[in-house]
Amino acid sequence: MSNSILVVGGGFSGLTAALEAAELGYEVYIVEKSPFLGGRVAQLNKYFPKLCPPSCGLEIQFQRIKKNPNVKFLTMATVDSVEGEAGDFTVKVSIAPRCTAPSSADLGELASSLESEVADEFNLGLATRKPLYMDTPFAFPNRYVLEPKKLSSADAIKVGASDACDLNEAPKEIELSVGSIILATGWKPYDVTNLTNLGAGQITNCISNMQMERLASPNGPTDGAITRPSDGKSPEKIAFVQCAGSRDQNHLGFCSYICCMASLKQALYVREQYPDADVTIYYIDMRTPGRYDKFMRKAVADEKLHLVKGKVAGVEEDAATGDVIVEVEDAVKGHKAKIRHDMVVLATGMQPSLAGEANPFGVTLDDEGFVVGGEAKGIFSAGCAQKPLDVMRTAQSGTSAALKAIQTVRGR
Questions:
Q1: What is the full DSSP assignment across 193-234?
Q2: Is Metal-binding included in the keywords of this UniProt record (predicted)?
Q3: pTM as predicted
Q4: What would the pLDDT profile of 304-314 be if each residue is shown by its tens digit?
């Protein structure tokens, strides 16, 4: 039997769950598949309810982890198998090689000297990065990652000469004994290339809402300047298309809950940078639950921000100018129109990370990939692994999962 707790996922719900349990004296393991902790929140420019930058919440969590010996974390790690029962699980974990020294060596100069460039996942394809990188803001752990297979021959020679890099580091497998498991596996942006009628993946100036967060972020690819990807032009007329892939039987059958609020927030990003810009949000239903209704009323009081209730049928590109033409049916006025914009942002939905992925935990997933049940087995879900949530409710669900996990190990 074990009193330890495994948390799968190092985003906001996972960090909250891990710290709540650890600060009550329980040993906690965090297994995170990416090189750094922080999850999707780290990619945002600002988050609700206070419109704080990610550092506002995450750096506090990272400091708590550093000060608490009960928390142990594994990055670039995935769960391969889970065997046993509540109180006595054996979990096999694979850890991919980081290929850099365990110290916090500053490899910035070496990284910048490399000629190789690869797509930057953190910036959602809006930029490139080096195959030796630590491009996550306030990265934790503060340690570079090296991808040897993506180095040119010349770069491999250069990196191989560094004592802080190991081109031949091998993957590892470890085994953990834990009494309960918390699935805080989070969410992934719905694949916009599936939305061909909306120009996603084809029209350069038609981007996703998460790409918009990166454009607006001071540590993003444009240093916070919201500009058109095609030519760097400042947009004078920008549109947001709601329910891009959500509430659609051909894509995501559910409402992603936060998309309306995200677009209103991003509309304010635009208006703050460009006081003369016109912003239009095309929506089916505007969902602003609870306290967020006040935020919506404040946003729509802006005479340059327009809400149009209508379904967008298609998006086209003017190849000569790079402008984006939106075909929309105005449900209130009862007519169809094609409207030109400098740029379009698709409010793509939140798909659970487990959707379409391996499920070594043995829990039941619904048709969309959300976790349902599992509590009888001593496995609990938190955050967007169970349903779409904002950051505040994600943290609350992490606390709830931690309490349930503690009750499981305490009762054994």
A1: GG-GGGTTTT-TTEEEHHHHHHHHSTTSTTTT----TTT-PP
A2: yes
A3: 0.94
A4: 999 999 989 89
